[in-house]
Design goal:
By secondary structure, the protein is mostly beta strands. Helices cover 0% and strands 47% of the residues. The radius of gyration is 22 Å and the shape is globular.
Length: 487
């Protein structure tokens, strides 16, 4: 186990995405799948950590109030959960990781093999922001939730009172587990976690679970000093259910969870409705599948909710190896069939392991999707991003919906990975209140040498903001020019 690290890496800086040529796609059998975009936006690509094989499970959260990016990630060599945050005085470059040492990276749980399936959420405060990380303890087959308080004053330490809570422990000897496929969200400092209860036996169903803290001694789970301080509810059960769980909250704090049901070959969306539902405790949740004909869909899915609860999903269509997007045709989450709209957006190719997909909404409620694109049969996988053309009006639509006349989305390649075969197998996306995307992702250089892994950040460059004297009637000068800064 490692407990601290010295300066780790020299950052690389790239302006602009890497783009594909639109030449031989028909010859390579890609049919109606388009080439990637001409330049529509400017991006920085930075290495956060490249010390071992880091980041095969990863999460990112952006604190808009304090303009800070937080990253949780798994160290696959040492079996540790790591946390990264920007230092207070970035100009001093006295962190221990990230571009020009402007971040600190610290292991926050090193007890056994911990940190897989991690996800992260932040409650912003000018005094002390609270970061929640949900993750799986492989050693004990347990669900854990880490709470970290960042008081925004320290450069080297930077965090206060880190501590984890074990919510539920399974049985490692009989291969029964709690906590795979975790996802966390929060409202007003109350975290809520979606996760899978699973097993290695075909005759016992998996269960989609949801956990949240409750008043002391009023719950049914939580361990140690947190015994019965959490409520763990079973929402849905089926063979293999609960894979790729993703949770989000509407503006009232009401949760929805999306997850994959391999028996249906489709994603399922569960929404807490308080009564008159069809799943969960006392039918207090509504569970609705999102099928797309006979296609096999729903792996690697990600969920984002509008303020009124309208869901947006991004996931993998295994039948035609594409990125698929689904949303509800009616506002407010009234998504019983046939109120779902689905569309294939871009080619993804195929992989023998997980493929990264992550969705978030811009301030106007439009979807932004980061994902792995392994569609080139002879080239490496790449990190890609897809957005409706209305978010990038100066660009040319080049993707989505596939198979129909007239594209309405813009797809860009952000990081080609070079010789890397495993670019963006894990991806986490956050869109800030200014509408700029931040992507944390995993890069594994697995050919032909000994594998080397990286945690990387891609963030969209804010545009120039001009301030002039015209508003005051003074037309003689431009008073200043302010450029946006990286998160």
């Amino acid at each position: 186990m490692r407990y601290f690290r010295t300066v780790l890496t020299v950052a690389t800086l790239m302006l602009g995405p890497v783009f594909a040529e639109a030449t031989d796609r028909e010859a390579r059998g890609l049919g109606d799948l388009p080439a990637k975009a001409v330049e529509a936006s400017e991006w920085f690509i930075d290495i956060l950590d490249d010390t071992t094989i880091v980041g095969p499970h990863i999460g990112v959260a952006y604190d808009d109030l304090n303009e800070k990016t937080y990253v949780s990630y798994y160290d696959a060599v040492n079996g540790d959960l790591w946390f990264a945050w920007p230092i207070l005085d970035a100009a001093d470059h006295n962190g221990n990781c990230g571009p020009d040492n402007t971040f600190n990276c610290l292991p926050v749980d090193t007890e056994g093999n911990v940190g897989m399936y991690n996800d992260i959420a932040v409650r912003a405060s000018t005094v002390s922001s609270t970061i929640y990380i949900s993750y799986f303890d492989e050693t004990n087959h347990a669900l854990k939730v880490m709470e970290v308080h960042n008081d925004h004053t320290y450069n080297v330490i930077g965090i206060m009172a880190p501590g984890y809570r074990t919510i539920q422990t399974g049985d490692p000897h009989n291969d029964l587990w709690y906590g795979k496929h975790t996802s966390v969200s929060q409202r007003l400092g109350v975290p809520i976690v979606a996760y899978q209860k699973g097993n290695a036996f075909h005759f016992i169903d998996e269960v989609q679970m949801v956990a949240r803290p409750v008043a002391e001694d009023t719950g049914n789970c939580g361990e140690g000093e947190y015994l019965n301080d959490w409520q763990c509810d079973s929402i849905y059960s089926a063979e293999g259910a609960g894979q790729y769980a993703s949770i989000d909250l509407d503006s009232g704090g009401n949760p929805s969870v999306a997850f994959y049901d391999p028996g249906l070959g489709a994603p399922v969306v569960a929404t807490e409705v308080g009564g008159s539902g069809n799943c969960g405790p006392s039918n207090s949740w509504s569970c609705i599948a999102v099928p797309n004909g006979t296609d096999s869909t729903g792996k690697f899915l990600s969920l984002a909710l509008e303020a009124d609860g309208t869901p947006h999903l991004a996931y993998y269509n295994a039948t035609d190896q594409s990125l698929e997007y689904a949303t509800c045709a009616l506002p407010g989450g009234n998504c019983s069939l046939p109120n779902w709209q689905t569309a294939r957006i871009s080619a993804m190719g195929t992989s023998l392991v997980d493929m990264g997909i992550s969705i978030d909404l811009d301030p106007g409620g439009d979807p932004v999707i980061a994902h792995q694109d392994a569609s080139d049969p002879i080239g490496p996988a790449v990190l890609a991003i897809a957005r409706p053309w209305t978010l990038l009006p100066d660009s040319t639509p080049n993707c989505g919906p596939l198979g129909l006349v007239g594209f309405t989305w813009v797809c860009e390649w952000l990081d080609s990975g070079g010789a890397t075969l495993s670019e963006a197998r894990a991806v986490s996306l956050n869109v800030n209140q200014a509408g700029h995307a931040i992507v944390a992702y995993h890069e594994l250089d697995d050919y032909p040498y000994t594998a080397e892994g990286k945690v990387k950040l891609a963030f969209e460059e804010p545009p120039l903001v001009f301030s002039d004297g015209f508003e005051s009637g003074d037309f003689s000068f431009w008073s200043n020019v302010v450029t946006g800064t990286a998160p």
